[in-house]
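Section 5: illustrative case.
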């Protein structure tokens, strides 16, 4: 027996991808809101009570092609984590977003495998170490004539692929050509290259007083 039915949205295309139960016995929906500009959309999350009354609706991330939420999960602290696709600034990124129980954004980060690839995050789950595992699909550059692949990315509790990204200069997890971490470092450093446009380059290490300790030439090969 149907208890109730709820239609949400306006005259433009709107859709919800996933629903989850909340800690207080209500419902949370994640999906897409398309605005008046053709093919422009944004990610939407809506919370309803058991009588289908809208408690709140919030929009997240950018507005553009392919901006939508695919999956949402409730977390033990009463907040939520959701993921989706963000195609607002050329290419397509997978993103992860953390919100509190009232829908306030705590952080939003987006990723793609390498420059030129299109990535979409379709599911996210919390892990036992307090972080998250996000999965989806990766569509290589069409010029490479490669097949679509599955995409999985393990993130820490702040949604960071590289620890400490929440205090870095890259906002919202956007892709940098190269990342070097940790900073400061003791015994070792990691050099993470995300763009095929990066060629051979020089790496200079300085101490906390600004004195040069060592230099090296990095030969970047893909």
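Designed sequence:
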């Amino acid at each position: 027996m149907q208890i109730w039915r709820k239609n949400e949205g306006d005259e433009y295309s709107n859709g919800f991808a996933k629903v989850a139960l909340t800690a207080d016995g209500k419902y949370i929906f994640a999906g897409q809101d398309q605005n008046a500009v053709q093919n422009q959309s944004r990610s939407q999350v809506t919370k309803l009570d058991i009588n289908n009354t809208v408690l709140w609706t919030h929009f997240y991330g950018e507005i553009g092609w392919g901006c939508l939420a695919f999956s949402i999960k409730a977390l033990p602290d009463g907040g939520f984590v959701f993921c989706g696709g963000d195609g607002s600034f050329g290419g397509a990124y997978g993103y992860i977003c953390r919100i509190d129980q009232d829908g306030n954004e705590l952080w939003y980060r987006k990723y793609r495998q390498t420059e030129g690839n299109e990535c979409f995050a379709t599911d996210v789950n919390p892990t036992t170490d307090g972080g998250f595992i996000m999965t989806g699909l990766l569509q290589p550059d069409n010029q490479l004539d490669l097949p679509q692949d599955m995409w999985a990315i393990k993130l820490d509790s702040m949604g960071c692929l590289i620890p400490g990204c929440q205090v870095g200069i890259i906002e919202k997890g956007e892709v940098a050509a190269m990342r070097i971490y940790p900073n400061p470092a003791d015994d070792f450093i990691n050099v993470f290259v995300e763009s095929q446009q990066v060629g051979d380059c020089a790496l200079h290490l300085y101490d906390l007083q600004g004195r040069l300790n060592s230099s090296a030439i990095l030969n970047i090969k893909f």
